[in-house]
Amino acid sequence: MALRVVAVLNQKGGVGKTTTSANLAYALADMGFKVTVIDLDPQGHLGVSLGIPAVKQLKGIDAVMLGEESVENCLLSIKDNLQLVVSGRRLQEIEQLSDGGAKRGDLLRQAFDGQFDDQDFVFIDCPPSSGVLVANALFATDEILIPMTGDYLSLQGLSHMMATIKKFEIALQKQYQKLLVLSRFNTTRRISKEVLAILMKHFPNQILPTVIREAALLAECPGIGKSVLEYKPGSRSARDFRQLARDFIEGKVM
């Protein structure tokens, strides 16, 4: 299969971007796909979630984008078929770059060039912002995975983000493939069901059918540096992510 580069993106914080990136990547690796995850968030939570606590002391995607290191020298093996590039301690410097004009947004795509030809997937865990780092992710990909929570504030954030994506589509003259995933979803709340109904009305055939249900277990996992599939492989949350991975591969939508 051809390499798929996927930006996991939502400008709103707390919607499950890092949880989705870590666990979906882990599930796909378990299925035999070769997967690389890139932590493009200066907070460095993806590395911590996958068992790399000292992310600020390691060479990461910051050094790659600043032209100081190759991607190859920054790859960390997490498990069979899964590798990680951490954020690094200088990623915030890229967000604050003022020189270079439009070239500031193309650093990541250039760094990727030819580096992942042996991979099936590259997932980019994006920061909750709309600055230079997110622009780099959008330059580097044609595919966007949008984690959403079941509340109205998340809907408002989605509207703003879709407007941002549209601007990039016009400027770059391309159409992104966009998929939504319901994350931290409480199936017993009326508001969650209402939000899902609104999403299905406005984004038909763009929503992955498996929802990731709210669970305290998912909040525990980063603290021990393991995905939920490794920490509690028989749990409901692990089953959710395995099914989500199957939906994602098979292109199932609702």
Write the layout of secondary structure elements.
Blueprint: E1 4-8, H1 17-30, E2 35-39, H2 45-49, H3 61-65, E3 76-79, E4 82-85, H4 91-95, H5 107-112, E5 121-125, H6 132-140, E6 143-148, H7 152-172, E7 177-182, H8 190-202, H9 216-224, H10 228-231, H11 236-250
Parallel strand pairs: 1-5, 1-6, 2-4, 2-5, 6-7
Antiparallel strand pairs: 3-4
Task: Describe the model.
By secondary structure, this protein is α/β, with parallel strands linked by helices. The protein has a single domain, classed as P-loop containing nucleotide triphosphate hydrolases (Rossmann fold, 3-Layer(aba) Sandwich). The protein is built from eleven helices and seven strands. Strands 3-4-2-5-1-6-7 form a seven-stranded mixed β-sheet, with helices on both faces. A hairpin with a 2-residue loop joins strand 3 and strand 4. Helix 1 packs across helix 11. It is globular. The two termini are 24 Å apart. 46% of the residues are buried. The mean pLDDT is 94.
- Please count the helical segments: 11
For CATH, the homologous superfamily is named as P-loop containing nucleotide triphosphate hydrolases
Computed structural class: alpha/beta
Task: Please give the number of β-strands.
Answer: 7
Low-pLDDT sequence parts: none
Taken in chain order, the helices and strands follow as EHEHHEEHHEHEHEHHHH
Helix content estimate: 40-55%
CATH level 1 name:
Alpha Beta
Key structural traits:
254 residues, alpha/beta, Rossmann fold, seven-stranded mixed beta sheet, 42% helix, globular
